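TASK: fixed-backbone design
INPUT:
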């Protein structure tokens, strides 16, 4: 019986975290295409310049990303590439739970800028990788380090072109 109670608690906590992430994603943050240059209207978005979307790595596969510019001179700030550990771990978990540039207030009706976020001093690039991890999708099964590396290399070439105004 004790095992069932512990399992239920873990399941319930996982469910609460999942629902919280969905609410955060749909209410707080605005997703834009990588080609968009950051035309945002809400107060938080104007203080934290961000881009998210997909970059095609082959004919059938797209990697999802979320990029945050540094709050202090993005062209001279370093770029941090965030890849969550483990096969198929979404980097959005690291974004929302560890590095979060803005966070919900207690009642969940508004957000505030998180002053200790890493984008205070660096540009942040989160990538859901390999294919089929998180929001990334495609028809190719990635089963080797070489395949993953090739997709990541293609992704970085294209994404760095898109963000050349933000990065030195």
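OUTPUT:
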């Amino acid at each position: 019986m004790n095992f069932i109670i512990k399992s239920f608690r873990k399941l319930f906590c996982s469910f609460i975290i999942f629902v919280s992430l969905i609410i955060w994603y749909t209410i707080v943050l605005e997703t834009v295409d990588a080609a968009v240059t950051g035309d945002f209207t809400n107060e938080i978005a104007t203080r934290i310049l961000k881009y998210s979307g997909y970059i095609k790595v082959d004919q059938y596969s797209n990697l999802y990303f979320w990029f945050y510019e540094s709050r202090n001179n993005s062209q001279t700030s370093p770029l941090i590439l965030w890849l969550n550990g483990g096969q198929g771990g979404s980097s959005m978990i690291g974004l929302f739970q560890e590095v979060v540039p803005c966070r919900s207030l207690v009642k969940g009706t508004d957000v505030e800028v998180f002053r200790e976020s890493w984008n205070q001093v660096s540009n942040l690039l989160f990538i859901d990788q390999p294919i089929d991890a998180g929001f990334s999708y495609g028809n190719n099964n990635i089963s080797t380090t070489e395949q993953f590396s090739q997709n990541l290399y293609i992704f970085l070439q294209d994404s760095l072109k898109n963000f050349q105004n933000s990065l030195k």
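COMMENT: The helical segments are 2-28, 43-47, 91-99, 145-162.
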